[in-house]
Amino acid sequence: MRHFRFTPIVLVSSLLLFSGCSGYKLGSQLPKDISSVYVPTVRNQTDEPLLENEATRAILEQIQSDGSLKIVSENEADAILYATLTTYEIEALSYDSDNRSTPSEYRLRLGARIEMVRTDNGQVLVRNSSLQGRDDFPLVGDLTSAKQNGLPGAAEDLARYIVAAVTEAWPD
């Protein structure tokens, strides 16, 4: 019968391997007393109209999908998540091979800032002023129609970053 011996190399290797995982936690990083949130309509400070509806929808869907918080009315909420759209940018990514001056694919970027506050005392729990979502989309039809096709993807990407900032940004 062979016995396994702990050598210094095995011991040090094991410590290094497992110490890398010591700060990782599964599940939500929210304080224990924050379990519900109210999300008012996103404010739109860009020059592009009607972005707030798509952004609000995407944030609500992402919160539901994440499952860390329950969406409730303002008077039932432990916290309120305020979001403001600050940038709306569109840029050409690629051009038509037959006509190099005609874009064939675009990237739409939405920038936002958020603030999550407790309803009981107004304490700011999370503040982030540099969140960004984006989506790449082909030019189908005119640019106005194509931008409408790219907006849901950019809003969903932004919502993922917003929910991650809210649920994962908590100190130990």
Question: What does this 3D model show about the protein?
Answer:
With about 170 residues, this protein is an alpha/beta fold. It has a single domain, classed as 2-Layer Sandwich (Double Stranded RNA Binding Domain). It has three helices and six strands; from the N terminus they run αββαββββα. The protein has helices spanning about 10-20, 50-65, 145-170; strands at about 35-40, 45, 70, 80-95, 105-120, 125-140. Mean pLDDT is about 85; it is low at about 20-25.
Notable features of this structure?
Double Stranded RNA Binding Domain; alpha/beta; 32% strand; 3 helices; 6-stranded mixed β-sheet
Main sheet, how many strands, which sense, barrel?
A: 6 strands, mixed
Shape, principal axes of CA atoms: elongated
Q: What is the number of domains?
A: 1
Low-confidence stretches: 18-26
What is the CA-atom radius of gyration, in angstroms? 22 Å
Q: Helicity level, as a percent range?
A: 25-40%
- Under CATH, the topology can be stated as Double Stranded RNA Binding Domain
- Whole-Å distance between the termini? 46 Å
Return the CATH class.
Answer: Alpha Beta
Structural class, from secondary structure content? alpha/beta
Instruction: Look at the structure and name the CATH superfamily.
Output: Lipoprotein like domain
Helix and strand sequence: HEEHEEEEH
Average pLDDT rating: 85
Count all strands and give the number: 6
